[in-house]
Amino acid sequence: MLSQICKSCSEQFQITDDDLLFYEAVSPTFNGKKYLVPPPQECPECRLQRRMCFRNERNLYRTRCGLSGKTIISTFSPEKGYIVYDQEEWWSDKWDSLKYGRDFDFSKTFAEQIVSLYRDVPHVSLLNINTENSYFTNYASNQKNSYLIFGAANNEDCMFGKFVTSCKDCMDVLSCNACELCYEGVKCQRCYNCRYFANSRECSDCTMISECIGCQNCIGCFGLRHKEYYVFNQHVGKEKFEAIKNEYKSLTPDKIAYLKTQLNTLASRLPHPHAHIYNSENCTGEFINNCKNCQYCFNCLSDGEDSKYMAFVPKGIRSQDCTFCAPDGTELCYYTTCNTRIRNSMFNYLFWFGDSVYYSMECFNSSNLFGCVGLRRNEYCILNKQYSPQDYEAMVAKIIEHMHSTGEWGDFFPRHASPFGYNETTANEYFPLTREEAVAKEFKWFDEKSADGEAKIPAYKVPDEITQTNDDICSVNLICASSGKPYKIIPQELMLYRRMNVCVPHKSPDQRHKERMELFNPLRLWDRSCAKCGKTIQTTYAPDRPEIVYCEKCYLESVY
After folding, report:
1. One domain for residues 14 and 149
2. Domain finish residue from 219, 240, 273
3. Could you give the CA distance from residue 175 to residue 539 in angstroms, rounded to a whole number?
4. First to last CA, the chain
5. Could you list the residue range(s) of the whole structural domain that residue 16 is in?
6. Residues 346/40, Cβ–Cβ less than 8 Å
7. Which residues, listed in sequence order, are joined to residue 527 by a DSSP beta bridge?
8. What is the per-residue pLDDT across 46-59, written as a single tens digit (0 to 9) for each?
């Protein structure tokens, strides 16, 4: 085992013997020589932060397509000067990414050359596959009638969500799977007709619940299992419950605030599970399902095996330091982000479907690439230049030797290679920094212009009762009660508020998302003692947090 000092945050971290064996296993062979991947010089959290600073999910801008000139929506703001094509035109045969190919210059660093290539090659405006009436989505696939959904798959009639999969008629949800007719949910699965629910599974017809499984007709409850007709963790019976349910049928801001206060009071007195790990063997982390031998993993939804330092990666097999690789995962991959269904690949940003790709960005359905940008259905390319298989092997070997001399081999892209400001990316959601802090760490920052449009109605003047809100609200701009930024209500959204009997929110979608993110614990594990038996546990609850945290055995004994 090696003890390292992180070159970014100066924290000490460990590299185990198993880690060293993994680095050797993923080290590639070119031209008959194996090029060993060196141990990382940054701690797991700094590596995760660095990968996340390349992903802009939800900051969308109006710009013009560099091919047709039409107005489009893109993750690239026009001020940055990147060439952006509309989705359909980018995927078409109207242009050829190989025409941007160039020779490798051994007088320059690799980073200089990949950044230059990235500046020249056109980029896709948004990343969506098989969507219908769902233009305002990103990193999404198989969407129908969805709006402002990010990192999502297989949804219908959903709005304002992130990491939403197989859901229908859901709004304002984060990390929810197979839910229907739900509002304001965080980290939930297979729930129906629930409002304001978190860390719950297989619940129905519930309002303001948390840490519940298999419950129905419950209000303001915490930590229940297979209960019905409960209010604030007390059984009230069907008749009394129906009366109370009618009182909270229409949720106003005051009712929501009251229920949150009651739920938080319960949560402060009752035990929390140290982790949400289900049907898994030898795993540590948070929100893990059906996995085996996965360590320090977060939101690894299902079917992962023999992996470490993964986040938001279902089906991660024998991989490390991979992030946002849904829905089809990785196999034998290292230090890569925003990928899916890839094998034997390392140090990539946004690579879908293929194998043996290294240090490349925005490439699809390809294999045997090194330092490429925007390629589709290509192989044996370096800096977008085509080679024969033999020449490719020989040239990659020379480039790796050169990267050894510059200290670049085995490390991810530098922070400044990201096209986005730190505050535009998911990194700022999980590792928030001020502008000064970000710049000091060599991240970019983007100072956006003021939003267009004249805000006419402060959100607090919106009626508290949804029954008193008419269709005219969709024709004006509102002012967010927290951020002061304008936002709009769309007709589809208003219909769902009416169906769910909740008031029109007084806060913008971005502010609501920010507040949901606050319900996420950090993507980090601490050693802490079980509050009941004293056993050492690894948990996302820091030792100085006030929650009562139990180990798995003690928690199950307390709820069953």
Report:
1. no
2. 273
3. 19
4. 41
5. 2-42
6. no
7. 538
8. 999 999 999 999 99
